[in-house]
């Protein structure tokens, strides 16, 4: 087996292509990786340590928080506070921005600490999704929500962790998409894929068709198109990170459209759609809301939702074409 590259070695070798000082990005990414290892450990032992089930609280999304939602949120917020590099965090699990008590820190994080919560108790892959930005407000001042409400095009880092059969740490800093796989034996994340590219065409579509009757005409036409082709596969795990990761590696389109229950879509722009859009585009894929490029959307609120079409470029184009023709 060839000697694998560590995260530190990779960042050092690619220092010239980093969007911020190596020492800071190294510290930030290792902080995230270290916390991902802790979440990995909790996720794998959750049934034994009674960490399945609900925490007895709800979040701003109107969702019942799972114990692991709350734990992952606490772990990552603590990590960002202790990193001394982050001034403010926006999290799915907290209504308002979370100040890191360090107004001199330059970085901002938007995160979904645990994605796919409905799958925690049934031993199906879940994840963490995050974006890193430079603050907009003056260094030394109290950070503001505008520091988090930044367009996807402003991201320095877009990344996710997939707690699956293996724990994978996937991110882009704007120079390609790279996958580091956790080696429990050595305790390190090791480089297992560089400059990932998503194929332009594939035959896998990923959509919760339970909402089909409430889909708009164009989306119905696209789903029918996939079925009429006869050789498409429908794959839907119900954890965005897992569905997205499969499509990144094998090609495919993930769709969360407008439904009767979620007319503006279900997924959150800032800490689900933007980071994955950055990764998709860096791998040669596309991410749209059905009309506009996800990363161009000007955020108005922390938890705003959007419709989402992401994955293989030609498949997204086909969906957009049918939406444009029929809506
Ligand atoms: P989260 O667990 O962070 O709230 O996100 C859940 C999301 C996403 O992971 C997944 O793609 C989607 O919800 C599934 O929604 P449906 O169950 O409505 O298909
Ligand atoms: Mn949730
Ligand atoms: Mn999520
Ligand atoms: Mn979540």
UniProtKB/TrEMBL annotation:
Cofactor: Mg(2+)
Binding site for Mg(2+) 2: 112, 115, 272
Domain of life: Bacteria
A GO-annotated cellular component: cytosol
Gene3D superfamilies, per database record: 3.40.190.80, Fructose-1,6-Bisphosphatase, subunit A, domain 1 (3.30.540.10)
Biological pathway: Carbohydrate biosynthesis; gluconeogenesis; Carbohydrate biosynthesis; Calvin cycle
Record's protein name: Fructose-1,6-bisphosphatase class 1
Database matches in Pfam families: FBPase, FBPase_C
Catalytic reactions of this protein: beta-D-fructose 1,6-bisphosphate + H2O = beta-D-fructose 6-phosphate + phosphate
Residues reported to bind Mg(2+) 1: 92, 112, 114
Keywords, ordered alphabetically: Carbohydrate metabolism, Cytoplasm, Hydrolase, Magnesium, Metal-binding
Binding site for substrate: 115-118, 208, 236, 266
GO biological process: fructose 1,6-bisphosphate metabolic process; fructose 6-phosphate metabolic process; fructose metabolic process; gluconeogenesis; sucrose biosynthetic process
Domain Fructose-1-6-bisphosphatase class 1 C-terminal: 200-322
EC class (word): hydrolase
